[in-house]
């Protein structure tokens, strides 16, 4: 007998069991591996019954090594085994900790720090990485715990049913470690109920017909957006998810674009930089080789959404049949599981032209139409209304602000996590129990405009400036600066009377700027910042590629950059 469809409050494990019984042979997850630059992609698939069986095999092993509430760290490559490992943790009521494999360049220190913080009872990997995972733990003085290669676990048809127990909705399902853009990474405690609620919110926002939908994703599964869009929402909605490795995207973004056009009703997501990257890496005839009329939704979130990026992406790929209405600017954060706001209707993205002086004073005022002087207009992309949750804009005294007033974004809803692992202070909640996001924004016609991070705001001579606006001015003014590889921040003046503006920017990999070019760049940037922002530049540091600190998901880590600058840690040209 076919089981009844899970109810409105059902957890992810309920949905996985349902699809395994309802459509056991239907493709659930597909991983596309690109073995070399000429590869068209090698596809490996699992149906719903097979994925459920692999998840149960993981759970059956976990219950012999860990108790409910213990942690299991996923230190393995992107792929089907990663999905099975995560779902197996949910079955076993062991708290999953999605992480990267040790071989991911540039993240070893973060990985070691997170493993020390979450204190896992077991490490989940694949057999190819077994030796390197054991060596990594030893080299970083981590406690010795069992290391389990997921791909070698025996699959038994009914192997887990005998000890299966149903998770409590309020139990922690996994720890989502933040990217660390303004502080050290912290493990956000996401409950089973949080996870299910945000999946439902995402389905309502982005999926009109689950039966005609395919998720296509390259985002890492150890990041919130990648995990929810490529694993959680497909399990909840019962549609296929196609995965590829993030490195494969960086090697050739056309691989992602081709996969988008290989299925009907594709839904995908990427941060703003990825859309610019696709344009930069695509040749004149690339669009003619693609079929993007089948794309339903392209979510743009995870960092500030730029109007120019949206325009360039659609201009480049309109010949492939891409509908401008597919682009969905969104806002989210790990503490809300991931999704907070997004447009649910198929409309083209909306850009709000704001008077820059009013914005600096904390107000959204429409700028006059037509040409304006440099710096008179700031363009903000609307990120849609709240997705099934309460969103308030709050002033410095905790007062709720009306529309078109800039303040801190605060949230309440079933998707909001209850706090950070092992951290009672600082609390992320205000006295009324609402999440303090640390992000600044305003509501305009019921839709969210995100203006920046509270901790990143630069105040010079009593005026507020947003670092992403300054960085964009520098990047577009000086050709030798690498796109999205720069950080603007305030540094204390020697006399203690306030802050000065400092910009640290990487120069292009194929460039070795001469002292004359450095002086010319500083002169050009100084003039542009003065004209567009009314700002005096204290220092522009042009540094070698790889120098500017970045978070694990590629955003500039401005707080870390500021700390390094104050310590004299940069080696400028």
Task: Report on the architecture of this protein.
There is one protein chain. The mean pLDDT is 89. The N and C termini lie far apart (71 Å). It is built from 15 helices and 25 strands. The strands form seven sheets. Strands 2-1-10-9-11-12-13-14 form an eight-stranded mixed beta sheet, with helices on both faces. Helix 1 (12-22) packs across helix 7, helix 6 (192-206) crosses helix 7 (224-237) and helix 13 (467-477) packs across helix 14. The protein has helices spanning 12-22, 48-62, 80-92, 108-118, 130-139, 192-206, 224-237, 246-251, 254-260, 272-281, 307-317, 356-360, 467-477, 515-533, 558-566; strands at residues 27-33, 42-47, 71-75, 95-99, 122-125, 147-149, 172-177, 187-191, 214-217, 240-244, 266-270, 295-300, 327-332, 339-342, 351-355, 377-381, 390-394, 407-412, 435-444, 447-453, 458-460, 463-465, 481-492, 499-507, 537-543. The protein is of the alpha/beta class.
Main sheet record: 8 strands, mixed
Poorly predicted ranges: none
Give the helix proportion (percent range): 25-40%
First CA to last CA: what distance?
71 Å
Structural class: alpha/beta
Q: Can you give the mean pLDDT?
A: 89
Number of strands: 25
Strand order of the largest sheet: 2-1-10-9-11-12-13-14
* Radius of gyration from the alpha-carbon trace, in angstroms: 24 Å
Number of helices: 15
Instruction: Name the shape in a single word.
Output: globular
Percentage of residues in DSSP E strands: 15-25%
